[in-house]
Amino acid sequence: MIILQPGFEGAVRSKLGVSQKELPDSEINTPFLVDRAEADVIRRVPEYATLTDPLDKLNLQDAVITYIAMMIAPSMVRRLKYKVKTIDVSWEKEKVDWEAFAARLRDEYEGLICELTGYDSPLVGRIDVEPRNTL
Fold first, then answer.
1. Contact, 69 vs 12, CB < 8 A?
2. Is residue 83 in some structural domain?
3. Could you name the domain of life of the organism this protein comes from (predicted)?
């Protein structure tokens, strides 16, 4: 791991709104997911190693975490139980459109990248790095 810190798996689960039982660390911390997410962020933010602002460093990690969650989201429909019925207990979870959820995560990811680079994003638009003088 180049960008991520140990324990990032909890942040991925938090973005997806699932428990450790529903999405264990071993499913999140696979080399393909982690390496792919970090490689994409590094490609999009080539100056990542020179970031000094604490908020930028957090946004960098959040971008990788969001990318991982975006890649996992479409598979959540097969991972989660929506209905449970036993003799004593019966409950049903609200269904989630995981494809739409992944699209929202992609938008969030693009926004984070745009904040870090200040470049145009097809989903967000231009975000200036330097504040404008509005007087």
1. yes
2. yes
3. Bacteria
Instruction: Decide if 82 is inside a domain.
Output: yes
Q: Which two tokens stand for residue 90?
A: 């019966």
Q: How many domains does the chain have?
A: 1
Per the domain annotation, does 65 fall within a domain?
A: yes
Find out whether 42 and 48 touch, Cβ atoms under 8 Å.
yes
The Cα–Cα gap between 97 and 75 comes to: 11
Amino acid (1-letter code) at residue 25: D
In this structure, is the dihedral angle defined by the CA atoms of residues 125, 127, 133 and 135, taken in order, positive or negative?
positive
**Cβ of 57: how many Cβ atoms within 10 Å?**
15
**Which residue range forms the structural domain that includes residue 28?**
8-117
3-state secondary structure of 91: strand
Residue 60 domain-assigned (yes or no):
yes
Q: What is the pTM of this model?
A: 0.80
